[in-house]
Structures are given as C-alpha cells and as structure tokens.
Design a protein that fits this description.
Blueprint lengths: L2 E5 L3 H13 L3 E5 L2 H10 L4 E5 L7 H11 L4 E6 L4 H9 L4 E4 L4 H31 L10 H13 L6 E4 L6 H10 L8 E5 L5 H9 L16 H4 L4 E5 L6 H13 L1 E3 L6 E3 L3 E6 L3 H6 L5 H7 L2 E4 L10 H16 L5 E2 L1 H9 L5 H15 L4 E2 L1 H4 L26 H15 L4 H7 L4 H10 L22
Parallel strand pairs: 1-2, 1-3, 3-4, 4-5, 6-11, 6-12, 7-8, 8-11, 13-14
Antiparallel strand pairs: 9-10
Helix pairs in contact: 2-3, 13-15, 17-18, 18-19
Length: 471
Amino acid sequence: MGRILIADDHDALRRGLLRGLTGAGHEVEEASNGNAAIERLHDNYFDVVLSDLKMGGSDGMDVLRTCRALHPTTAVILMTAFGSVNTAVEAMKIGAFDYVQKPFEIEEMEVKIEKALEVKRLKHELEYLRGTQQDIYNFDRIVGSSPALERVLDIVKKVAKSNTTVLIRGETGTGKELIAGAIHHNSLRSARNFVKVNCAALQENLLESELFGHEKGAFTGADKQRIGRFEQADGGTMFLDEIGDMSASTQAKILRVLQEHEFERLGGTRTLRVDVRLIAATNRDLPAMVQAGQFREDLYYRLNVVSIEMPPLRERKEDIVSLASTFIGRFAAELKKRIDGLDADAQKLLMRYNWPGNIRELENTIERAMLLAEGRVITAADLRLGDTPTAGGGRDQAPVVKIPPTGIPLDDIERHALVEALKMSNWVQKDAAELLSISPRVMNYKIKTLGIEFPRGRRAAPLTPPVAAAS
C-alpha cells in the first residue's frame, strides 16, 4: 500500500477516488486544485500523485514539474479528457508515469497505481543491490594482504577505468569472478549491468542463444523472442567465465562482437550493435590450445590485451587465516551460531594444507567445520583435513617415495622434501622443520648445503652447522 495524493477540481470524481483508494488500503490525501496540490508536495512525500491535467490555477503539468523537482521517485499519473491526450503523451516524455483517459473505472486506476508501486519497489531494490555490490567489490573489502594478491590488485586498479579487454587466468576457485566484478564496479560503467555467463555450463546451441538471444521460431521450443546477454550488458560489462570451453563457432561470433560490436540473434536477420566491455576468464592453457588448433589465435590476442594471473591459495598462505575468519563471520550469521575463531592447531593445519581447490575449498571447509564445531572455537578436528600429513604422525602413514628404475640421488629426495615442507609452512623454517621432525638448526643447515633458493622477499636464516651430540 502507498501514500497517494489526488489533485482534481471535480469534487465528485476526487471524492469517489478517495473512497475507493482508501477502501483498498492506501493512505490518501486530496487537493481541490493545482495550487493546493503543489503546497502539499512541498510539505509531504507521496508514492503516487493522481492529477487532473486541466485545472484552475496551476494545471497538471505544473504539478508534474514540481513533483519531479521535489520528489523524483514519486510516480505521477495524469487524468485527462479525450481532447488533451496529446498533452498527456508529452507529459510522459518529461517524466509522468502514465495517464488515464476520462471517464474511467476505479479498477483501471487501481491497476495503474499497483503497477507504479511495483516499479518503485523494484527501483529501490535495484539501487540497494547496486550499492551492496559496490561495497562487496570495493578494493578495501577484498580480503588478503599477500604480495601475490597485491600485485593482482595493482593491475586491476590501473585497468579498471579503461575499456580494455581483460583476460583473467588461474586455477578453479582462485577468485577470478571476484576480480572481474572489482574491475567492473570500479570502472566508468559501474552504473550499468555486470552480466556473467559460464561458458562451460551450457551446450553449444544453448550458449549461443544465451549470449546472442533468439527470434521466435529460431529452433524447436523457441516460442517467443529472447533477449541475449550481450544486449542485457549493453553499456556495461560482460564476464565470460571458462572461455576455453567455447566451440569454434561461438568463438567466431565473440570475435565479431569484439571487433565490430555487432551480432544477430539466432534466427534473426537484423544486425544489433552493442557497447560492451568484455572480461574473460579461464583455468586452461590457452596458448597451448591455440597451438593445438582448439582455440582461435585471433580471438586469443583480442582477449589477451591485459592478462591477470590469479595466484593459487598455496602461494598466498599469508591470506589463509584472514580468509577463514571472514568465512567464519559470514557463516556465523547465516547459521546463527556463535564461533569466535580458530584455535592455534586449526590455524596451523590450514596453513599446512595444500588447498588444491583453492579459496572455494577453504570456504566449504569452514562451512563444514562451523556445522560440526561444538565449542566456541574451531579445532583441528572440526576441519576434517585428516589426510594432511602432520609432524609426529605414525611412520606407517609416511608418503611413499617413488624411485625411478634409473635411480635418484638421495640429495634430490631430501631437497624435494625440504622444498615441499617450506611451501606448506609458507617458507617459515621453524614450522617446516616441525613438519619433517627435525630441529630448526638442522633444517637451516640442509637448506644451505643443498642450495635451496627462497622466493623473492623470503630469506633463509644465517648458516649455523648442527652441533654434534656430546660423546
């Protein structure tokens, strides 16, 4: 129900509307002429204004202009006699929501009012969602402070304001869609649509219909015209996820959109033009697919104007605990369950795990742990990452070393074990030593003697030979 103002100098009509709309549950005020209506608009807010077009003093056009100036979201419906329909149409061009021709039934007016209220509700919902999305994709809200993530965000900030095509590469679950959203919502196109399509989720004929739309009768089951995603994204951004799974036919059509900004709907002959920024993502090796003839070389180079490499979670271990804490806060609200955080053993286990499923796997792990946890903190047992090798585990659970028939130097096996332990512990030597059940001093000595190089920004401790046991 809404607040409604009725402005009409015809007493019987105005009072009839007042009775009918009040009976329908609306809160209604009345004004006997245009001047009185304008006074009420200065004093109050209304969801809908019903105004006669021709009144003594200020007319309906004056009421419309005042309403647009004071309350842009208020819907104005004009009531007009037959001879002034053209004026009512002109009024719609400058912002009137609709008009109704006299004489009319109260039911007709109620339908128009309900439509106006529904449009108003949808606009408010859209504004809320856009504001929420803007908040989600704000750079300050992206969780993580690792050097690997900072390098990604540096590129995103540089390219966001342009219309450049961007190709985002990375393993499944690394956050490619989040980065695509950040690019759009921090661009000059942020007020327009951000349309997402997963190219791997649809068969070829369905994907083309999804992207470009189709005309009625284009294929069996096409009983009406359908607007495609590119039309929906006009003026905004299109995000094509898993673009490496696209057929050669669809690749050719995407290339045409990138080059000519035009396409036809399936079954259609009319050429449509769009202004769309394209962001693509893939977890596949596109250069290798180009060499194998599985992906168009010309499309690859059109997509690869700016390339962003998303680091896997195992390469940004510094972010794991903060990401886990973010998921705990979210699931605590959804599940209405108070969990204060992770205990020390749980944090250590999260840092040691290799996360083949990346952030998505971490998110699922935390959700499961939240459901299973019985205390106020998540423990290592709640995480159910029992397949992860830990220091001090039973010898029968030790991984089998694969020795090739030609043999392998023991130093190479040691070097591989040390590097894996260092990666699992985010290159913290003390934690890596604990994984291998050796002392930090022995760990440091072997790193130096085996010539293990640390990543840039990491540094091995000074060499100190292990002290021999007293005889």
